[in-house]
Design brief:
Helix content: 55-70%
Largest sheet: none
Number of helices: 9
Distance between the termini: 62 Å
Strand content: under 5%
Radius of gyration: 20 Å
Structural class: mainly alpha
């Protein structure tokens, strides 16, 4: 029978009150499960080999454990006072192997910059590199198999693109994936 009064607003982090606790719990989870979840082991050791399907399964597993990129971004910002929008792979690598936390966008742009530096590309090739970049901004990985799926399948898929890139598409994908999760310097 009395008037409501606003006292305070707190942000929760699942079962944790402080963002530092949430980040520490995520780090512990990763370290405890690194050898149990294949995709997690790949993220820590060979992220260039991580497939879209394995990444999807890893995200589902992490969601079940209470961890996702959005919550990690919020906790990181609140704990470290750094506003970085990183992907789940970057958080895993940062907290387990000490890799620098770099935004997903910056990682993609760095990898694409390496590809652009390989040679002088034709206009058509350059437009396809732009499309690879756009796809990577939506996804975290791109492999040969992905080029036979949407949005690339309608354009002839891997075979047609490989011809366009003079049978060097595997090398290009390798440069992208090898540089995607390297520290940007």
């Amino acid at each position: 029978e009395q008037e409501d009064v606003f006292i305070a607003m707190d942000r929760g982090y699942g079962d944790y009150e402080k963002p530092e606790d949430y980040l520490e719990s995520f780090e512990t989870y990763i370290k405890e499960n690194q050898n149990k979840i294949e995709a997690l082991r790949l993220v820590c050791t060979r992220p260039s080999e991580l497939s879209r399907e394995a990444l999807k399964q890893l995200r589902l597993e992490l969601d079940r454990a209470g961890f996702n990129a959005q919550a990690l971004n919020t906790a990181w910002k609140d704990a470290k006072n750094e506003d970085i929008v990183a992907d789940i792979i970057s958080y895993i690598r940062t907290l387990t192997i000490g890799s620098s936390l770099i935004s997903h966008e910056d990682r993609v742009r760095n990898a694409i910059r390496k590809v652009r530096g390989i040679q002088r590309w034709t206009t058509r090739q350059s437009k396809w590199i732009d499309r690879f970049e756009a796809q990577l901004l939506k996804e975290s990985v791109i492999h040969k198999e992905d080029l036979d799926q949407a949005p690339f399948k309608n354009e002839g898929g891997y075979s047609r693109l490989n011809k366009l890139f003079e049978n060097r598409l595997d090398d290009i994908l390798s440069v992208i994936n090898d540089n995607l999760y390297q520290d940007v310097g």
